[in-house]
Specification:
The protein is an alpha+beta fold. It has one domain (about 10-180): Gcn5-related N-acetyltransferase (GNAT) (Aminopeptidase, 3-Layer(aba) Sandwich), CATH 3.40.630. Helix content is about 35%, strand content about 30%. The chain has five helices and eight strands. An eight-stranded mixed β-sheet has the order 1-2-3-4-5-6-8-7, with helices on both faces. Helix 1 crosses helix 2 (about 50-65). The longest helix has 18 residues, at about 50-65.
């Protein structure tokens, strides 16, 4: 069996750490919260068994690609408050930045913080020409996060069976943003 070291990342206020099987219970609870999955392709909360299976698939994603999603820990929390990271999209060959947080943690800048950390990891560890962000057209909060990450709108395109807004951050724009920071 392949063993891969999944790093932990620290932002100003948060820790992104490897997802573990025990996180399934917290994620399952988060997925039940009204509105959390509203803009996802399937807004119905998955059963616990599917959450457990998805965590195993996430581990396999890390082993295959060297990146994936992390669990997000907030100050004073012992359970993860959501996930964030990078996903390879085999249908298009793109890498997407994504995030999902429990409702009590919305509106605090946490999503921007974890998205920026994920983008930094992707561009500094890999040679991606660009990383995309996909957002439901009605999800204004996630659009603001993407804007704060200096991702630019590209087009509307179907992913996962629904039409989404596609944004991107190119390596050149990322490097310019780092130089300006």
């Amino acid at each position: 069996m392949n063993t891969i070291h999944i790093p932990s990342l620290n932002t100003q206020r948060l820790t992104l750490r490897p997802l573990v099987p025990a996180d399934a219970v917290a994620l399952h609870r988060i997925y039940q919260v009204d509105g959390v999955l509203r803009y996802f392709p399937d807004p119905q909360p998955p059963p616990l068994e599917r959450v457990e299976r998805n965590l195993l698939l996430q581990r396999a994603h890390w082993e295959q690609h060297g990146y994936g999603n992390w669990g997000v820990l907030a100050p004073g929390q012992v359970e993860i408050i959501g996930w964030a990271g990078l996903q390879f999209l085999p249908d298009t060959g793109e890498t997407e930045v994504g995030f999902l947080l429990d409702r009590p943690f919305w509106g605090r800048g946490y999503a921007t913080e974890v998205a920026l950390a994920s983008l930094r990891y992707g561009f500094e560890k890999f040679h991606f020409p660009e990383i995309i962000g996909l957002v439901h057209p009605e999800n204004l909060a996630s659009q603001r996060v993407i804007d704060k990450c200096r991702m630019t709108w590209v087009d509307r395109k179907e992913y996962f069976g629904i039409e989404l807004l596609r944004y991107r951050l190119t390596r050149a724009a990322y490097e310019e943003n780092q130089h300006d920071a």
